[in-house]
Amino acid sequence: MDTMGMILQGIFVLGTMGIILYIFYFYLRLQREKRHLLQQLKVKQQLTEKTFAEIHNGPMQTLAFLIREVEIHEVPQQELLESLRDVYHSILVDVENLNNSKNQ
Prior knowledge:
Number of domains: 1
Shape: rod-shaped
Largest sheet: none
Helix content: over 70%
């Protein structure tokens, strides 16, 4: 085989290896990005579940209690308004905490 043929063959092998290495690097980068996105999704799902549980176990339970109290007893309007304001405030705090957690 002549020198020119060997040089062309070497260039072809180096070019092919370069393309293979680039594809492998790109694949590894995509895998790392996929893991990162899956981790972010998991954190957001956990945050959503936590916020739902906090709202359900706090303000929702209070509202259910207030509804039962109003149905069974006469609740003074001022007491009812204070309780409703507390529930409203609790929901605002939970939503604010959710928004703050999302932005971090």
